[in-house]
Every structure is written in structure tokens, then in C-alpha cells.
Amino acid sequence: MATIFIDGEAGTTGLGIRERLVSVPGVVLKSLSGDRRKDPAARRDLMAEVDLVVLCLPDDAAKESVKLACDLGDRAPRILDASTAHRVAPNWVYGFPEMVPGHAEAVAKARQVANPGCYPTGAIALLRPLTDAGLLPPDHPVTVNAVSGYSGGGKAMIEAHERDGGPAFELYALGLAHKHVPELMKYAGLKRRPIFVPSVGHFRQGMLVSIPLHLDTLPGRPRAADLSAALVEHYAGSDLVSVVAPEADGKLEPEALNDTDRLELRVYANEVARHAVLVARLDNLGKGASGAAVQNIRLMLGL
Ligand SMILES: NC(=O)C1=CN([C@@H]2O[C@H](COP(=O)(O)OP(=O)(O)OC[C@H]3O[C@@H](n4cnc5c(N)ncnc54)[C@H](OP(=O)(O)O)[C@@H]3O)[C@@H](O)[C@H]2O)C=CC1
Ligand SMILES: CC(=O)N[C@@H](CCC(=O)OP(=O)(O)O)C(=O)O
């Protein structure tokens, strides 16, 4: 039996992980009672008893938890951090098992794994196979547009939308310094900082990440079919990630994969205009958070 402590289990991501682990054999979840769940000493003592601690906390609290775990020395558990705090940190493995061949094995062996952000999951899934194949140069000027359901903002945004109504649609992070840009750049293989324009809609969960490309600005002037072929080849055999032919009506809504851990990739094109748009669809709470966390937990614990 493998023992797991979810630090932050009452939050949006923590609850999603709990729900998914119920159906995974070989796991025992250890918890703290409500009044002790933010007590550092109680958290450290529980960490000493488990094989894996999963951090579903704001960044500062996640950093504090890592320190508590490290203070345990030889008794420190392995860590999976769902926050943004360690995604580009040295000595942490980025928890996107499909990213490059052999990466699932790297996650399986790691002591410290950083679970990806929901938006970077879609963008890296689309971009990394293309940069690795030489179809997209690392210094290409890339723009990433995205829309998320409001659960992406955690308990506070859920309450704002469900209690107060929330805006129907809103662009945000227009200071162009969203916290996801560093991991997006690093793991997509980009040397030029991409422009990232996220938005949130008045729906609970679901996400689209889209990346427009002028095909004539790419080396070798590829056709859109060359981009899809590279994605198909990269994700062949993946259980969770699939490359899907675009629907003829040219429409795509963000909620179709809700309550699944799947990620769909599409390449839309107008070859006459030499335009393409890469689109990823996922549940921000599924492959964008708790589903990815459980995928990594299974790898780390050999379940
Ligand atoms: N929601 C999403 O789609 C995604 C979220 N993430 C990341 O996962 C992490 C958790 O996010 P999310 O679940 O959305 O956030 P929530 O706000 O829903 O939950 C955070 C939880 O952490 C608890 N908490 C806060 N401070 C402490 C502390 N010092 N000690 C112990 N517990 C604490 C909160 O307690 P209380 O209940 O009292 O508020 C709450 O239960 C964040 O870093 C977020 O960025 C990653 C990918 C996607
Ligand atoms: C709609 C919304 O607010 N979304 C969050 C991202 C959610 C996510 O991926 O979480 P991490 O914070 O762990 O990276 C945001 O833009 O900050």
C-alpha cells in the first residue's frame, strides 16, 4: 500500500485528486482534521508518515510545505506540487509525461515533480513536438490565446461567479506577465517570449488554448497537414492525448471534455490564405490539474 497526504485537500484541485484516487487500488489517503489542516507542525508530522505528499496550495504555502518536508531529511516523502512555485525550478521534474519520449520514466523516478499549469498543458502539447521536429523555430513570434472556465481561479473565483454572477467573459493578465509564461517558454522549447492572452468565461470548467500561425513564415513553408502529422506521430499510443480532425463546421466549444482527463489537439487551416490555428481542448480541472496529478501519482508510485 502507498500512503499519500494531500496538503490542501479541501481546495478545488485537492478535492479533484481525492475523488479520482478513490478508484485507484493500492492507495491509502492520510488527512488532518479541519482545525489542524493549516498547522505547520501537524503537516510536517503527517509528511513523515507518508510515501508521497501532494501540494494543492497557493504558491507561498507550497514553498512552506516543501521546506517542512525537506526538514525531515531521510524521512522526507516524495513531493508532487500542483502550484506554480517549482515548475521551472532546478531539481524538479515537470509533470507532463507525454512531453518528450522517455519523460514518463523521468516522472516515475523523480523525488520532486511539478504538476503543469492548465494553460501550459495545452500550449506545450501543441508546440513542443513542432519545435522538436524543427517545424517551428525557437525564436518564432508565438501568440497563445486561451479561455478557461472560472474554476481555474480556485475557490475564490468559483465563489465570485456562483454567488455574485461574475462577468460573462473577461480578458485578463493584460499586463502580459502571466505566471504561466516561464514554464510555457521553457517546456515548449521557445527562446522568444510568447504573448499569452488568457480569458475566463462564465462557465465552471473546460478550456481552449489556441495558437495562430502564418504558415509562410515558418522554415520550409510547411502545409498545415505537416504540422498535424508531427503531432499525430508524437502522440501515437497516448491514452490521454489525441490529435483529432477538425469538425467541418469550424466551431469548437470548451466544455466537451469536462470530467475527463483527456486532451484533444486540432489543426485548423486555410491553405489558400496559408493560415493555421492550433487548438487544444481540455478540462482545466482534469488534464489541466487533478487528472494530470493522478497520472503523475500513478507513475511516481508505480500504481
Ligand atoms: N483550479 C485549477 O484549475 C488549477 C489550480 N492549480 C493550482 O493548484 C493549487 C491549488 O489551487 P486550487 O485548488 O484551485 O485553489 P483553492 O483556492 O481552491 O484551494 C486551495 C486550498 O489550500 C488551502 N490553503 C491555503 N493556505 C494554506 C496553508 N497555509 N496551509 C494549508 N492549506 C492552505 C485553502 O484553504 P481554505 O479552504 O481554508 O481556503 C484551500 O483549501 C494552486 O497553486 C493553483 O495555482 C493548478 C492547475 C489548475
Ligand atoms: C481562470 C484562472 O484564473 N486561471 C488561473 C490558472 C489556473 C492554473 O493553471 O493554475 P496554476 O495557478 O497552478 O498555474 C490563472 O490564470 O491564474
From TrEMBL:
The active site is at 118. It comes from the Bacteria. GO terms for molecular function: N-acetyl-gamma-glutamyl-phosphate reductase activity; NAD binding. Keywords: Amino-acid biosynthesis, Arginine biosynthesis, Cytoplasm, NADP, Oxidoreductase. InterPro entries: AGPR, AGPR_AS, AGPR_dimerisation_dom, AGPR_type-2, NAD(P)-bd_dom_sf, Semialdehyde_DH_NAD-bd. The keyword Plastid does not apply. It catalyses: N-acetyl-L-glutamate 5-semialdehyde + phosphate + NADP(+) = N-acetyl-L-glutamyl 5-phosphate + NADPH + H(+). Residues 3-107 form the Semialdehyde dehydrogenase NAD-binding domain. Its main location: cytoplasm. CDD domains: AGPR_2_C. It holds the Pfam family Semialdhyde_dhC_1. It is found in: Cytoplasm. It is an enzyme of class 1 (oxidoreductase). GO terms for cellular component: cytoplasm. Pathway: Amino-acid biosynthesis; L-arginine biosynthesis; N(2)-acetyl-L-ornithine from L-glutamate: step 3/4. One of its GO terms (biological process) is L-arginine biosynthetic process. Catalyzes the NADPH-dependent reduction of N-acetyl-5-glutamyl phosphate to yield N-acetyl-L-glutamate 5-semialdehyde. Belongs to the NAGSA dehydrogenase family. Type 2 subfamily. This is N-acetyl-gamma-glutamyl-phosphate reductase. It comes from Dongia mobilis.
